[in-house]
Amino acid sequence: MSTYKELLKQRDSLERQIKEARDRELSEAVAQVRSLVQEYELTAEDVFPSNRSRGTARGSKVAAKYRNPATGETWTGRGKAPKWIQGQEREQFAI
Q1: Which of 14, 17, 47, 77 could bridge across to 65 with cysteines, CB 3.0–4.6 Å?
Q2: Using CA atoms, how far apart are residues 67 and 84, in angstroms rounded to an integer?
Q3: Helices of type H across 41-77
C-alpha cells in the first residue's frame, strides 16, 4: 500500500499530466474551430445567435394601463390590484 506522501506525488504528477493534455487538446480544438470559421465564413452571430429572435425579453417592462388621478400612481393591470382601484370600475382609470 502506498504512503500518503507517495500518493500526493502521484496526484501532483497526474494533475500536471491532465493540465498538459488539456492545454494540448484545447489548442487543437481552437485551431479546428478557427479553420471552420474561416472555411465557411462564419460570423459570431452564426455561431452564437442572440436570444432576440425569441420575442420579448424575460422581465421586460409593461406599459401602464391604469392611472390614479389623485396621485398619478400607475398600474399595468398585472398582479394584485392596488387599493386605489379595488372595488371600482377600472375603465374610469384607463390611460
Answers
A1: 77
A2: 10
A3: 44-47
pLDDT tens per residue, range 70-93: 898 999 999 899 999 988 888 999
Please give the C-alpha separations between residue 33 and each of 22, 38, 39, 48, 58, in angstroms, as whole numbers: 16, 9, 10, 13, 32
The rounded Cα 91 to chain-centroid distance in angstroms is 38
Instruction: Tell me the H-state helices in the chain.
Output: 4-40, 44-47
CA 52/CA 72 separation, integer angstroms: 33
Beta bridge partners of 74: 67
CA–CA distance, 65 with 78 (Å, rounded to integer): 9
Nearby residues of 95 by Cβ (< 8 Å), 6 or more positions away: 64, 65, 66, 67, 74
The whole-angstrom separation of Cα 10 and Cα 4 is 10
